[in-house]
Structure formats: C-alpha cells, structure tokens
Amino acid sequence: MNTVSLFQTLPGNESDEFACALTAGLRAKPYQVSPKFFYDAAGSALFDQICELPEYYPTRTEIGILAEHANDMATCIGPNAEIVEFGAGSSRKIRLLLDALHRPQRFVPVDISGEHLHASAGALREAYPSLEIRPVVADFTRPVALPPRMPGHGARVGFFPGSSIGNFDPQEARRFLRQIANQLRGGGLLIGTDLVKDPAILHAAYNDAAGVTAAFNRNLLLRANRELDADFVVDNFAHYAFYNAALQRIEMHLISLHSQNVHIGDERFHFAEGDSIHTENSYKFTLEGFHALAMEAGFRPAATWCDARRWFCLHWLEAPA
After folding, report:
1. Residue 115 pLDDT more than 90?
2. How far apart are CA 162 and CA 122, in angstroms?
3. CATH number of the domain to which 83 belongs
4. What is the pLDDT of residues 11-24, one digit of tens each?
5. pTM greater than 0.85
6. Same domain assignment for residues 123 and 112
7. Cβ–Cβ < 8 Å for 208, 50
8. Closest-CA residue to 121 (of 112, 131, 133, 129)
9. Do 66 and 21 lie in a common domain?
10. What is the dihedral of CA 95, 100, 101, 102, to 10 degrees?
11. Domain contains 178
12. In a domain, 6, yes or no
C-alpha cells in the first residue's frame, strides 16, 4: 500500500498546494492526502481540543515527562541556546522547556498554519519579553530557511514534540531527520516518540467518545469546501481509525458511506460505497527501533526520558558539527 506522503513538491501558496495534493491524491489508488493539510486554523484548534481529551494520553504524558525532566534536558542543551520548534502548536510544551533553559537567546517556531503560529508567538512574547521570537511560516517537511545564527548564541537545537515524527513513513522519517541534522549541526534535537503499547489504548486515543478526532479528520473535507470550491457532503464520510500491528502504526481514513460524486473546482471524482481516503499514519516506536532510525539519519542518541508506564518517550539526539 502506498503511504500518505509528507514530502510533496508543490507550487504556489498553501491553498494551491492543498489543491494540488488533494486532486493528485484522489487521482491515485488508494485515495490519499498528506496529514499536513489538517492544520488550517480550524484544524489546529480541533487538535488542541484532542490534546485535552481523556483518551488522548500522548500530550499529558509528554508534558509530565517534560515537567519532571526539563532541568536534565536543559543541561544537555546548554546555555544561550536557540530553539527551533518544528510544527509549533500550542505553547504549553515549549514553555516548560524555556523555563528550564539557562539564558535562551531565541525561539524560532516553524509551522504551516500562519494564523495559529502568529497567535501563539504573540502570547509567548508577552510571557518572555527578553526572548527573541522569530516565527517562520513554512512547511517544515521541506528545507526551511532559518534566521542566520547570531554571534554569542549557543547551540541551535531542534524541538519536535508530540511524536509528529510518527506521521512520516520510515523512509520519509529518515530523510526528514537527515535534513534537520544538517540544520542543527553542532547542536541537537529533543524529539518525542509514542511507543508501541496495548492496541486497545491506541484505539481509544484515536476514536474518542466525544467525536473530536472524527471532526478533526472530517475538517479536511470542510477545508476543501472552504478553500477549493469543493462540494463534499461531510456526513457522507465516516471517520475510521485502527491500529495496523504489522506496520506498528495507527491509520486514519475517511470512508465513503454511499456511491457519490464530488467536485473540486471543475474536476469530478467518484467514490464508491466503502472507498477510503487515507489521511494519516501515526507510527509507534520501540526505543531500539527509533535509536537505529536516528543513527541512520546522522544523529547520536545521548539521553532518553520515558514515563513510568513506558507509553511515551523524549530523546536527546546530538547532531555532529
């Protein structure tokens, strides 16, 4: 099965990229689209709600690890650091890290959703008036032009929480990690990974009782209607998420409940009953498996912090100079 690609060479602005990716994905078999297009303003807000759900353990577990071990992480990172957060969301996690760091010099949040990014950066400026904050609106899955390094700054360090690395297929994860290892030379990367566990726990996390994850998945169709002159009838598609144990990943799909035609601009797409749009993968890791992946990408695993149940893990990876 072809997996949903986060690496797509697409022209133009974000809506143009979304149009290109969605129409290309619906011309393919099986139908697919990259999960990076979940995160318009509405999708980002829905994801923030997901992070508060009782079934969704990754956020609170990772926050607990950060709260307990942030001082040790700060020791690994060192003083005067510049922190680059890839796929910056809400600021709860970065605040825990910033509060522990010794004289951080600059924070560079990078995200594809400009509205959400600038709102978060504005709140951080109020909380950290002495910290330079330079948001970059960009697709972090491609090489990003970061601000030039400044004299007197310490290491340039990446922060990639939330196990977002799990949204890449293994080949793309390796490629992405190599890409940012080059950007972080002489520094390192603090990265979160969701670990392999009881499938029942995983199933509940992606099929919450309140239906917020379903709304998040379907928002992709609403976004297409808003931005691309599409005519998806959202109630004609069901949210479906399951754990594929053989591939150690959660898969999310939108399932067509009826035979139907959908138009995107002037193009028509037919969905038979049961056809699926594959919208996301979320790979789960073992410690050994992730460390092997990191080393293949050029990092050196140097420290690891897990919760007591070993459901989630934060890794400090050193990037050679």
Report:
1. no
2. 22
3. 3.40.50.150
4. 446 788 899 999 99
5. yes
6. yes
7. yes
8. 133
9. no
10. 130
11. yes
12. no
